[in-house]
Amino acid sequence: MQYDLTLCARCYVSNDNRVGVNNSELRRVEISEEVKTDWTDKETLHLLEALMHYGDDWKKVAEHVGGRSTKECVARFVKLPFGEQFMGPPESAEVDSESRSETMYLQSKRRRLTPFADTSNPIIAQAAFLSALAGKEVTELAAHAAVTALSEIDEGITTGSPASLLCGAERQESDGKDKLERPLVEAMVQFEKEALDLERAVSDVAIETKEIEDSIAHFEERDLQMEKEWQQLIQLKNLIFIDQLTLLVNKSGAPKAGETIREEVIDVKTE
Hints:
Its main location: nucleus. By secondary structure, this protein is mostly helical. Helices cover about 70% and strands about 0% of the residues. Among the domains are: about 1-30, no CATH class; about 40-90 and about 95-175, no CATH class.
C-alpha cells in the first residue's frame, strides 16, 4: 500500500509518522542537488576571463564564474578545445626512446588540430585551431581573442580586424565606464543649472522685497507729510474763522457806539 507521506530523517528515527504507518513500509530516498551540466556562452566567457586573471587559482575562478564549483570549472576547461593541451602530451608508462615520445606528442597534437568537431561555438573552435597550430605560446592570446569576440557578439558588435578583437575588452571596459559616467555628468550639469536658477530666483525675490520695503517707507513718509499739511490746513482754517468772527463782531458793534455819541451831543445842546 502506498502513502502520500514524506518524512525527514529525524521523524523517521523517532517513529513520528501517521497512525497506521510503520517504518518498515517506508522507503528511503536520497535527495541530491541537480548539477548544472549545460554551460552557457556567458559562463564560458566568465571562465576564460577568470583564467586570464587568476591563472590556476581555481577557487577564485569559480567565484568569478558564479554558480559553478571548482570541479565544474576544471571539467569545463578540460572540455574546451584548447584546454586539453594544458594537460601536456599524453604520457605512457612505457617510453622506450625520445623519438617515441615525440611521435606520441605529434599524434596527440594532430588529433587536436580538429577538436572543434564537437564544439558549438565557432569562435572558440577557431581559437582552438590556432592554438593547436602554434602551441602553448599563443594560448593566452587565443583565449583573449575568444573572450573579446564573445563579448562583441553579446553586444551585437561585429568587427573584422584581429587588432580590434585584441583590444575589444579594454574598449568594452572604457565604454562601460563612459556609459556610467555620462548619466552622472548629465545629472551634475542639471543639478548645477537648477542651483543657478534657484540662486537667481532668490536674488530676484530679494530685490523685489527691497523695492517693496523702499516703497512702503516712501509711502509712510508721504503719509506723515500729508498729516502735517492737514494739521496746518486745519489751523489755517481756524484762524480764518476767528478773523471772520472778529470782523463780524466789529461790524455789529460800531453803530451802537455812534448812537451813544449822538445821544450825548443832544443832551449837551439841550442843557
